[in-house]
Fold each of these.
Amino acid sequence: MERFFNTAGPQTPDSYTIDPLSRIDLDDVLTLIRQQRYFVLHAPRQTGKTTCMLALRDYLNREDDYIAVYVNVEAGQAKRNDVDSVVRGICDNLAEEFRGIIKSDLPLQLRDEARQVDPSSMLSTYLRRLAEALPKPIVLFIDEIDALVGDSLVSVLRQIRAGYYNRPQSFPQSIILFGVRDVRDYRIVLSNQDIVTGGSAFNIKAESLRLGNFSRAEIHKLYMQHTHETGQQFDEACFPMIWSATEGQPWLVNALGREVTWKMRENRDRTIRIIPEMIDRAIENIIYRRDTHIDILIDKLNEPRVKRVIEPILSNSEEAAEGLIPSGDIQYVTDMGLIQRERGKNIRIANGIYREIIPRELTWSTQETLTQQPVWYLNTDNSINMEKLLTDFQQFFRQNADSWIGRFNYAEAGPQLLLQAFLQRVVNGGGYIDREYGLGRKRTDLLIRKPLTDHYGGPVQRIVLELKIKRGSLDKLIEQGLVQTAEYMDMVGSVDEGHLIIFDRTQEKTWEERLWHRPYEHQGHTIMVWGM
């Protein structure tokens, strides 16, 4: 049976995979275990945490110095503050997992004995009895720890902490907690409305490790497994596109591979070479289909903590400096994998696919209710008539801005989102929009790519748009914007047109004063500047 790109659950022998143990610093992890440390490994969802920990469990059991056991506690989420049910459920799961590893009913017997004590100490009692009864030290992996909430989460953390000082003879030698976020960042609301932080409930943590994305080399290695398995070739020009679209996010990397080699049915013919235009189509298919991973991402956009970070990025607000956004919110959105934080650089959306998804989702209902048809704006050679499109948008903006922007959950980014909805409606007839924005950039770069034929490798129209909000002097803004637009045009290369769009939200101005357009010459480029 042909292997495949896996997008559902831990990796299996039937799926293309990167060695899970190569994705962590194994020497560091083994040192922490030998030193009897309790620590945290966290990463965004669907990045391979479970695959890595199962591989580490199996590695430790093969080495035969420890009894390593994995347990998933996500089922306790539904029980919320019912400590009794959550702790009993965890002990039941532990008993079955230990039984499977040591091939004995002893863990079930010890579990039954531990059930006689109060739930507030049942878990610690059970772990103590296991550690005392088993012939080797225990290494315990607890997955989805942050799925627990409230009283039940605090109880589990405190029971682990209570036995910590008896390790390894009377408690696990090492416990590793896995989740989306670092335990120190938990803000736990108890049933009596008291608030407990994860750091105080689990102050025995020695380290917090973060599982990273695939590197460029790992992406190439993963895709080459498909080539070696099937003979199907990838044009090398595909790989920079795959990196830009995913930046190594493991689910996206696998989803893109699966889409372009299997879901696109014509490419099941393994003699067909995968070329860049196919990657473009695969990206568009993934975005449009809204798979589970994408749906989870979309749902998060409605959370106030997420909005406080994402909205300034989309609105290229002058006030959108990191220091003005709560650091806890930034860390929360970073841990979810939605944004990237790099030393000395602006905070930005984590990858190209997320940059596409976010504005599209926020304007989805708007796109569906627009009446504009792509054919209205096509020239005879199938290119987009950008001057006609933006002239029509000016009138649309004049008539609808106040009412339509008010509908957006992200109202501060309303003008930019409304234009992007209008553009998306048009390019859905056959084209792509690449977006670039980030905290503190004070602008949004858009690149429209419109294939002029239906054939792969045919001519493509490229149009650069620079979006800015007017603050201060218009002349200075135009001067700065022309430089930035020209730089972006030079970076893209082979650009047919450049447009600088300035949104003026000054309420005192009439629409006649706000709406205008005229060409400027700058560094060998003709750039059309539009007032909105």
Note: The mean pLDDT is 89.
Amino acid sequence: MSRNDKGGITSHYYLIATVITIIGIAVVAKAAYIMTVKQDYWMEVANQKKFDSLIVMPNRGNILSDDGELMASSLPDYKMYMDFKVGGEWKDSLWNEKVDSICMGLHEIFPSKTAEEFKRDLEEGHQKMSQNWAIWPKRVDYNTFQRVKALPIFNLPKLRGGFHYEENSARRRPFGTLAYRTVGDMYGAKDSARFGLELSYDSILRGKEGITHKRKVMNQYLNFIDVPPTDGYDIETTINVQMQDIAEKAVEEELKLINGEVGVAIVMEVATGDVKAIVNLEKCGDGLYRERRNHAVADLLEPGSVFKTASMMVALDDGLVDTSRLVNTGNGQLTMYGAQMNDHNRASGGYGTITFSRALQVSSNIGISRIIDDLYKKEPEKYVDGLYRIGIATDLGVPITGAAAPVVRRPKRNSHGQFTNWSRTTLPWMSIGYESQIPPLSTLTFYNAIANNGKMMKPRFVKRVLSEGEVKTEYKPVVLKQQICKPSTLSKIQDILCKVVTQGTGKKAKSESFAVAGKTGTAQISKGRGGYKSGAVRYLVSFVGYFPADAPRYSCIVCLQKTGLPASGGTMSGWVFHNISEGIMAHNLNMDASSACDTINDRHPVVLNGNLESADYVLSRLGFDSRRQWTNPNSYAPFWGKAGWKSGQYMLQQTEQEAKGTVPNVVGMGARDAVYLLERQGLKTSVIGRGKVVLQSLAPGDKVTKGTLCTIKLQYQ
């Protein structure tokens, strides 16, 4: 190689090295410039592409009944939108081709809106090229969401079809308003509890929030979990769904009959103190009864005659009197310290001279108050101490927000020995259920102790805390008092409470199938500063007791509030108690039903006409074979037809449906499918009876006039 060639190559190398060096210096300078002068700008750009420390909400725990049935659960619901900008011309042409099919499918899913209305609405969003056009104005459940998502275009990926959604967690109660005030509720748009067990156990049900951050990668935002959320635990309550349903129906029926304002019922398991049912119905402005306040644990009202049992127990336990002591009740009217004391039978001449035991059986105000006043008027502190000793004034400390403790006044004296908060009428009226405020739950807890041979149990609402079926915490039964009184006193009280039902004022609570014990109560409700005489008189009528009396399993209290006479705890509340106790005992009977089986004919479930897909799904889960005979080009629409049983399998055959705008034939269908088909055509429906449709008021095939009423009659065949 010549000297000139070497010099040329060297000069090229120097040139290239110089260029690279200059570029390197430029890159470093530019980087330094970005890191210093432009730092704030590029940090802002970076922040727009990332999202740090985003909260991830955990799944809220379930509230379960005593046998594991869901009483409150968090389930997803969805708000659905359409983005008309994505997909370009290809999506627009596909939209024009499929819009009619989409709208018809939406009408099938949401019959209250016609396909034409859906088309007008969606086309408006299409013209505006909206990126978040609501397909349906309300949130929908998972099953409905899946049906919508299966429609044409909606079933495409988001960036091609434009269908997108918001997923939310909604609190659902499968049994509706059953035990509503006790189970509790959540604020609709907030993850915060309002009342009931939802609020009391919120920290357990809520779980712990997680933390995530997002980064934009290849035009998509990806989630990166920093701290995973911890789902809330489930709580298993003591509420029994069947008992709750029995109690609610019994209370509501009586409230309607007597035009009552408030109805309370509580059922407690004697041995454990478990609250099996708790009812808090209140008459609303529209005349319907709903649960708006937990009266059972929060109401501080004078209990009336159900308190007389506590007065007698104190006197007997102090050894100052026996049940055979005689007392003169006269003609049912007596002036005590200037105030009028009346018995409920004064119009018929009163009870005259009766025993202490009989005074409680017939709920004589005069009989009880005269004996208690005679025994304790010089030392009322001893009487009140006795009330606290037997547990009627115990603060139960129940885990329900708003629960109130009993208010039983203690006598106070000044330095001269004179009472400062006590009058001569206080003791007589306190002894028969006035001058004190006792929540219904406290009264029931006291009577439950009587049924439990003197052992007072704390009311229990929650048995255990669970995580995926595993027990995390168990709340065992708590004994508040081992013995509320002497065994001899308890035996006498139990005997008298049985006679209240068989021979006294509680005969309406009696059952022909098992023994019942309890006590009636009727009290006027004071209206605050207006006292008892401000306008129409309101009454609290009650019955509290237990069953079966010879081997107690359950205790129960019923309290009804109403305005005006008649008002009777024995007649009104006693009858509700009767219906509740009969229903519970019937539900708890274990009967062998094998003798009722038909061993001659094939045993298979009856399948009604209607939605064949639903029928096929259920039959397959039950293990039955079915032969499906249907074809339908609209895969998202249900298959309608009839079902039959032949040669050991079901025949599911699609039938031709009436044209749009005509009355469908729903004979042979169940109520659900029949109402769906009729209302889909724009008709209103009225359902009479139960079973399957045997008659419809509008003939199949007739032209539909929107809004016309079609009455369908159902019966079992």
Note: Residues 590-600, 632-636 have pLDDT under 50 and may be disordered.
Amino acid sequence: MRKITTIKLELSDWLYNAGIVGIANIFDANDVEYTKGLNYIEFEDSALDDFEEKYFKYFIKKYEKFTSWYKLISFQDYIEGFNINTIAEKDIEKINKYIKDIKKKLTSNSYKSGYLLIKDNKLDLLKEEKKLKKIKLTKKQKAKDAANSIQEQFQIIKAIIQYLKKDEVKKVILSKNIIYEVIQKFWSEVSFLNKNCSTKNMYEEYKSYFLDSAINYINEDKNKFKYSCFTCNGKVSNLEKTKAYTLTWINQIGVDMKRKTSHFWNFNADSFICPICNLVYSCIPAGFTVISGKGLFINENSNIESLIKINRHSLDHNSSFEDLEQETYYNIVENMSQSSVEHFQKEIENIQIVKLDSNNDRRPYTFNILSKDKLRVVSENKNRLKSMIKIHAKVGNKEYLNLYREVLARLYDGKNQFDLINKLLYLKLDEKFNRIQFIDMILKINNSFFEGSDKGKMVSYKTIDECRKAGLLLRNEYINKNAKNKLGGISYRLLNALKTKNTARFMDTLLNSYMYLGKQVPMAFVDALKDVDRFQSIGYSFVLGLQGEKINNDKEEEKGEVK
């Protein structure tokens, strides 16, 4: 009877935690049972049966639609919907671009190495690639004259696509795509990413290097082992390969212990890891979510449940890394299980945001910290933030600002929102942005930010609303006096003063405006002169009201949407 062994993986630093999340994601994608403790996962050794298959299955399921294989086979939809009777020059351009792309991919080294593993040899992709020719027209020919050439190329392309969609071919090519488009961004030089193993079966290589040694280690009697794993402190018999490993294969993380012994105490290299931890680190790519060479991992390690949940992303609705960031930051708050802000502030530790940029060879990883104060602001304003997700402001011919992204970026950098508010109000004056209810929301989010960073700079929400109403009242008075044409100039002068934090110029413009009506300036402005940030909050609220639109978004904020 087989002896059942239980493996327990406890949370540690961000790198190891990413590996643990990766293993959990792989298990979940393959319906493998495991237990979640407060700060660990636990599973029986049988969970590692055929783990190499489960490993690649997870990546293929998650990233299939982002691979070059998927882009190649997706052209079939275009072919099926193509009308040969209505050929235009744009069709020829699209077809030629596809032919260029597919020829490049089919002759790439990663695809060529994959062909050696495919037993189905009914189609030679390299021979088929040579048959593909771009559609060319003479100066006298029109697009419709290329009909026959297009049909010929379509026949070749359809044959290639049908072959690529075969189960065996698909599995090999997609695995190659995943290796070079996702996994290699995190680690290299070992297993199937060893340059001597590029033409070997990637499943077998993963099993041989990572899995077999881990399983052997699980079944060993460790009572007499004298070395300790650098990561989990588990016992290791000796420091030879298959018994202990280094971290040199993890990109820009490990130290070459043969040539860099000066990095260690007394020149004695001791950062060896056990086979189990070696397997965990191989799953780091599954802990991150990657789009176009950029990856994201949220190290929220208050408990394993939150850590796994926050890092679980469906890529169906995310077409860019920026979209992924937006969803992630919002999910951080949505996934918090605390029932109140007070509990939230007491229990949640600072959260580490780890970003990977694989194009940055010198510094691929960058780190940001989400403090309790920043998380509190997001939590308190999550409905306002949610309503901004799809709101854009046009700032140029082809340039747009996403309000949600802009607000969050300033929050997480510890900056106030005044520059964004100023820009949006200028756009409003130029009639390029009319959704001023969102400017009001940003003002209140900014005020919430000051509550955590410096309460002395905070203005009551009642005062913000009163100053906005004062601006609206002033506008109505000018309209009643047939002086509406003066409002634009007043608004521009006030915004310029706020932008440069020139309280004297702002008050001078305000005094003149009220003197024109024979009325007194509201006392809130006098009180605000004591602090420039309070002054800006009140000033922008006033200018917002001066735009002449009533704002009542309390119910909309509760729903998390704005009509």
Note: The CA atoms of residues 65 and 316 lie 9 Å apart.
